[in-house]
User: What shape does this take?
Amino acid sequence: TIIRLQHEFTIQVSPEIAADLDRLKDYLAHKNEIPLNQIRHIQILKRSIDARQRLIKVNLKVRIYIEEDFIKETIVLPEYPDVSSAPEIVIVGAGPAGLFAALRCIELGCKPILLERGKDVKSRRRDLKAINRDHIVNEDSNYCFGEGGAGTYSDGKLYTRSKKRGDVYRILELLVGFGATDQILVEAHPHIGTNKLPGIIAAIREKILERGGKIYFNTRVTDFEIKNSEINGVTLLNGDTIATNKVILATGHSARDIFELLYQKKIEIEAKPFALGVRVEHPQQLIDQIQYKCEVRGEYLPPSPYSIVKQVGGRGMYSFCMCPGGVIAPCATSPGEVVTNGWSPSKRDQPTANSGIVVELRMEDFAPFSKFGPLSGMYFQKSIEQRAWQIGGETQRVPAQRLVDMVAGKKSIDLPVTSYKPGLTSVDMTTVFPEFIHHTLQSGFKAFNKSMKGYLTNEAVVHAPESRTSSPVRIPRDWKTLEHVQIKGLYPCGEGAGYAGGIISAAIDGEKCAEACIATIKPNTI
Ligand code: FAD
Assistant: This one.
């Protein structure tokens, strides 16, 4: 007897069954004693891979439609009213925080004026090519700066440590509404990929412009007008000033000139701990072998990620922003420095796997830079990036060493070609890092190899540094109004201000800042 038309089950099946809806249907019919011909549809609601045992399983939450047709729900974007003549809010920075702040402004009836120092997603590509091929770093247009911010040319991992599932789901749904695959609502560890992100960002831009918002590219903010502890306007690089008493500041963790500006103007900021280390590249096949405990991954499993944390001599050392089937990118934002990070295409089909492996830093580590006050962490970070540039050969070539050689403390005689396009310079990492970081990395990698046997291999190459893991500065804000603790009308927002760490959390913070700001213009809106 059929009691309900829809049934939900949480099951564990082999990767082969999980990948084939017909086999899954057979399995569910048999297991639950449902006549096969009564099952009209199976909808997968959640999917995750459990690779802890030798026999890999896929955890699925499924909904079975019995004698009832499945009607696919389409994700509908919120109603965005025309805001051409609505009250204006200036947003500095068009990263995830700035873009989602702008969308929320429109949704709640305000007009966003987005100011972005970089170029639109398409024009930005030319500058990425110039870094990779000609070693030229454009200070306004690079892997961190430009439309979509640091998240545009990334792996587009969408997982977050945020416990607010509702907020996370809302952002994921908006991304689907703007063109992301709806599989991001199903996967336990969703990602979008570098090839798909620019289209989504462009769709967000079109919506903002269509509903009456404004976006100005190539527009760097260089100063803030402040009167009686209230924001009065922003000054642009060309000398123009935009009068406003509402500014959402979402300039990201690489906007060092903004941190310098705040410091010079005696606007309160604080140093904050972050993490720093290297980016390691392995053959993807090797990571698959370690994680899936098999010779070859096979067609039913995705390129494996890994995540690892160890305590080494009282310090945390962990993998950060791991990119399966990905590429290491030159992410400097100024000439004279080398910075690495990673990206992956949506299929994660590159032959290499890379991950940041970073050491937790503490405030006392910044002591040699204490004369810079709240910018001490930023100067510590910058000093390592500049040293890497010098040691690498004063181009975007990156200091590199075979992982086994780094652990053994000897320079590599030769280096294989890696995915990092500008090239490698063989160095001894002791010349790049302070002793405590180098030593922690050496010991930590040995500990990693105990958990992931085979990780320590001659084929793995360490690239230095991975230094932009999170902001080295916090811009303090009132926990309730989200305004800067001193400056009325200034809303520090997103990763650069220290309130987010990734695409999703930056987008959530952008929405929250827009709501807080609008609450002062149109009370009772939310
Ligand atoms: P940002 O994205 O940094 O945006 C700030 C924007 O402000 C930039 O566009 C910048 O040009 C602009 N700006 C700066 N100064 C000024 C100024 N003075 N005037 C005007 N505009 C200015 N996170 C994930 O969650 N998943 C990933 O897979 C992932 N991969 C990454 C890969 C790479 C290569 C990089 C670089 C980052 C990656 N991240 C990833 C991190 C993620 O991109 C950031 O956490 C996120 O973009 C932060 O958002 P944000 O809006 O706070 O700041």
Summary: Residues 243 and 291 are 55 Å apart (CA to CA). The chain has a mean pLDDT of 95. Residues 503-521 form the longest helix (19 residues). The longest strand covers residues 39-50.
